[in-house]
Amino acid sequence: MKIVKLAVIAFAAASLGLLTPLTEAQEAGAQPIGVSVEQVSIIVNGWSAKQSLLGKPVYNDQGEKVGVLHDIIVAPDDAVSFAIIAAHQFIGVSQHDVAVPMTQIDVVNGKLVWAGATRAAVKSMPEFQYSRVRVTPIARRDYLHH
C-alpha cells in the first residue's frame, strides 16, 4: 500500500514538474528557444492581432467609424510597422485599403482609435496595393538594417 501511495505522489509531482531538473543558465551567444520572462510580460501586455485587432472597426477621436483594420504589416526587424485599414467596406469586402503607421492607432475605451482621421481624409489617401508586399518573408540575416 505504501508503494502505491509513493507511486501516486511521484506521478503527481512529475506531472506538476516538481521532479524535473533545474534549467541551466543561458550562455552568451547561445540562441534560446521560446521566450524569456521579460518577453512573457510584454506578450501578456500586448495585443493579439487575431483576437483584438483584425476585423475590428477603427474610429476617429470623435467616435465616427473611419474604417476596419484588415491587416498588419510586420517589418523584417520585427517591428509592427503599418496597419492596413479598409477605408470603404461593403459586406466584408474592402473597396479601398490604406496603409497607416501603427503608432497612429491606439485603444481608447476598448475601441481602436485613429486620432484626427475623417472618412473623407481616409478615402482620399493613396490606395495600398498588396502586390508590393513580400509573400515570403526574407531571412533576418539578409535584411539590410538602416
Automatic annotation (TrEMBL):
<feature type="domain" description="PRC-barrel">
    <location>
        <begin position="52"/>
        <end position="113"/>
    </location>
</feature>
<feature type="signal peptide">
    <location>
        <begin position="1"/>
        <end position="25"/>
    </location>
</feature>
<dbReference type="InterPro" id="IPR011033">
    <property type="entry name" value="PRC_barrel-like_sf"/>
</dbReference>
<protein>
    <submittedName>
        <fullName>PRC-barrel domain containing protein</fullName>
    </submittedName>
</protein>
<dbReference type="Pfam" id="PF05239">
    <property type="entry name" value="PRC"/>
</dbReference>
<keyword id="KW-0732">Signal</keyword>
<dbReference type="InterPro" id="IPR027275">
    <property type="entry name" value="PRC-brl_dom"/>
</dbReference>
